[in-house]
Every structure is written in C-alpha cells, then in structure tokens.
Q: What sequence folds into this?
C-alpha cells in the first residue's frame, strides 16, 4: 500500500459573502480567523488508486466536482470514479451556489476553486509512498445536540461546562473514528470522522474559518509537524454544535472551546490507533435521482400568488425578512413552474460514490444526512467500518429522516424551496437503499 497527502489554501479574499442563515442577509466577511484548506489523501494498492479531498466549504455542486475530476485525470490519470470531493460544511466559508438568497456567489473565487481542489488531489497522488494505515474509535462527547428532537440552543454558561451533555446523547454521534497514516516510521497524515453541524459561528459572525472541525484539525496538524489532516463529515443533518446562534464575540470565544473538545477527542485516537490490513481498494460511482412529492401546477401558481401578494403590499421594504423570504419563494416558484410547463423533471440529477480501503467503506452522498438514516445503513452494512458521509460531490440540502419529514419543517420543506426543487417523497428509505447498494457493490470482488 502507498498513501500520499496534499494540501492547498482555498481561503477567499475578505469581503466575499458567507454561506447561510437567512434570505439576503449581506453577511460579508471582514477578516480571516483561520484559513480554509482543501486537503487530500490518495491511496494505491495493487496498482489501483483513489483520492478523497476534504474541503473547508459548505458544499460544492456537481459541476465543480466534475471540473476537479477532469483536471486530476489530465494531470495524473485518475478516473472520475476514483476522485471524491467532500466538504466539511462550515458556515463560515464562502457561498458556493445552489441556494437562492443564502449567500451571494463570488465568481472569481469559483473560477479558481476547481483548480485549487484538484491541485490538492494531484499533490496527494504525486506524493504516494509506502505507508501503514491505523484506526481507533474513541469517545467524542459534549459537542453535538439533536436540534430536531432536543430543541434549540442552550445558554452558554450551561454548554461551556466541561460536564455538559445533551439530554439524549444517543440521538447524536458520541464517538469518532480516527485514522493515522505512517510512512518511514513517522506520521504523515490523519483523518477524523464525526457528524455535527459546524455552526458554532452563525448569522451574526463575519470571520472566515472552518468552524470547530477546521480549527481543531489545523491545531492537530501544528502539533504533529509534517502531517496533513482531513475531517470527514458524517451524518449532521439534525445535529448542531452545542453553541449556536450567539453574538459574534461569544461565538468566536466559544469556537476555541468546542474546537479544543474535538481535538481532545481525536488526540487519544491518534495515539491508540492500531494497524488496519488493507489488501485492496475499490471505488464506485452511481448516477441518481431521488423522487420528490408531486405538486400540481395549479397549487404552485396559488403559492406564487400568495408570495407576490406579500411583495406587492403597500410600503413593502427589503429590510423586512418576510419580504426577502417571499422573494426567495417567488423566484423559486417561477422557476419550478417554468420547468413543469416545459415538461422537465423537477428532480435534480446527482450521484452517490463509494470508496473501499480494506475494511473501511466511505459511502458518500450529496445530502446533509440525518442520524437515523446513517444508523440504518451502518446496521446493515457488509463492512467492518462503514462511514456514511454527507456533502460528497454535490449539495442537495437535507436528507431528513421519517420523523423530520412528518413534521414538515425547515429541513423537509423550506430547504428544498431555497434549493429550487420539491420536497423529497421518501428520502429516508430511498437513500438507505441507495447507500446499501453502494455498500454491496464495494463488498463484491473487484
């Protein structure tokens, strides 16, 4: 086995608009708290190679991924099935498209981004060297809160206590997977996998950084000179960090506390990791469309009339959040109506991708996956170490579980609208089946 790492700075210039937290907020960056990176790991066994790159971004869309793959193939020959572009989902990075009103895209940044991500992958492939992979699974507590089941943000004086735990830890990730890579008798890189929204810094914050996962990973790199660290985002669709929606000063101070908690969990894993036997690697990529709820044209036109009535009120002001939200809905509804009138499908094409590295299966989807979906996949996986990853190669919003779909709230109904599509019909069941098909294909002899 040979493994290599690459790392490229993808920090945008100050002034770009940041991702998320409401319609047309003008949340423009004012400084860099911590730099953003594309960090890649390439693995080769028996002449077959693959590369996964983790980006300190909210998500990238499929056209960006395809451009990255083309550049990597041109430079080092890896096929499109062998390159996975994954994002950590920081909300303190630049908006990257696909979400109307939730951050304006900076076109110069997006023009340069695919080459920067590709360069990290190319570096990783070009640095391949004989190496050993080790793994540990370690406790990781006091970070996440299930916002769907256990409510919203709690007071800072409560969640910043060292002994804080969510009301029902079992509804969150309470453990993380840590991988260490050694070559020539010394560590050259590491990965950590955990599911939690990186939203310690929210709507009132304007500094660029990778939130707690990025800050912690950069800290661990500095403690281990010569290494490159990747964070792999798990099922975070319904899991917020315990600090969320606080003013800027409090958020930035809490950022170091939560980052330290995560780093404190990963450190023992780096020490305790034991070798993993990797006899082969495999990769698979499948195109996909996920069924959405059928909504008649007449109903859509009625919704549009309601939004246009809000926009047409006497004295309507763009300072009013309701007006800005009505703008999002109106623009989206017009596009959806036009798609249906033209006979086009309302279901956006996307893809799923799986990597197998010995007993480890990386099962990547383009969604913010909820915990119950991950749990269903892990329980039926054929692999010893199945890791369900969100925000891989594309960004289609939430994959809500059945309980969330039944509540028809923000994740299940509002986000599809700002993404320009319809709510999913049964994304819980459909995504579990699709990821298990990936898992099954990866388990078969290649």
A:
């Amino acid at each position: 086995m040979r493994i290599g790492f690459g790392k490229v700075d993808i920090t945008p210039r100050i002034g770009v608009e940041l991702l998320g937290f409401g319609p047309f907020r003008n949340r423009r960056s004012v400084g860099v708290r911590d730099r953003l990176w594309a960090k890649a790991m390439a693995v080769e066994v028996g002449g077959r190679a693959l590369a996964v790159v983790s980006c300190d971004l909210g998500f990238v869309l499929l056209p960006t991924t395809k451009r990255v793959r083309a550049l990597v193939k041109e430079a080092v020959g890896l096929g499109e099935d062998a390159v996975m572009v994954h994002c950590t989902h920081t909300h303190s990075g630049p908006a990257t498209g696909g979400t109307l009103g939730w951050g304006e895209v900076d076109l110069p940044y997006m023009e340069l981004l695919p080459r920067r991500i590709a360069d990290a992958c190319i570096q990783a492939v070009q640095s391949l060297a004989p190496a050993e992979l080790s793994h540990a699974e370690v406790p990781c507590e006091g970070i996440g809160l299930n916002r769907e089941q256990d409510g919203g943000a709690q007071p800072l004086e409560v969640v910043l206590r060292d002994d804080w735990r969510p009301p029902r830890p079992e509804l969150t990730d309470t453990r993380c997977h840590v991988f260490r890579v050694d070559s020539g008798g010394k560590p050259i890189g590491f990965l950590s996998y955990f599911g939690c929204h990186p939203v310690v810094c929210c709507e009132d914050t304007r500094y660029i950084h990778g939130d707690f996962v990025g800050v912690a990973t950069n800290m661990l790199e500095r403690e281990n000179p010569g290494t490159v660290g990747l964070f792999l985002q798990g099922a975070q669709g319904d899991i917020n960090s315990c600090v969320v929606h606080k003013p800027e000063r409090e958020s930035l101070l809490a950022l170091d506390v939560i980052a330290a908690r995560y780093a404190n969990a990963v450190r023992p894993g780096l020490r305790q990791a034991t070798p993993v036997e990797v006899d082969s690697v495999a990769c698979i990529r499948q195109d996909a469309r996920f069924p959405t709820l059928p909504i008649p044209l007449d109903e859509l036109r009625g919704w549009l009339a309601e939004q246009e009535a809000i926009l047409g009120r006497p004295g309507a002001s763009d300072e009013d959040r309701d007006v800005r939200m009505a703008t999002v809905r109106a623009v989206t509804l017009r596009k959806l109506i036009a798609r249906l009138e033209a006979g086009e499908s309302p279901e956006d094409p996307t893809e799923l991708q799986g990597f197998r590295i010995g007993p480890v299966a990386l099962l990547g989807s383009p969604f913010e996956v909820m915990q119950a979906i991950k749990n269903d996949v892990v329980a039926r996986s054929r692999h010893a170490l199945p890791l369900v990853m969100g925000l891989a190669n594309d960004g289609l919003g939430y994959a809500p579980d059945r309980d969330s779909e039944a509540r028809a709230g923000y994740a299940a109904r509002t986000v599809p609208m700002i993404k320009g599509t319809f709510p999913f019909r049964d994304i819980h069941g459909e995504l579990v089946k699709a990821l298990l098909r990936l898992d099954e294909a990866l388990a078969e002899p290649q």
Observations:
- The mean pLDDT is 96.
- The longest strand covers residues 37-45.
- The chain has two domains: 2-285+349-443, 297-341.
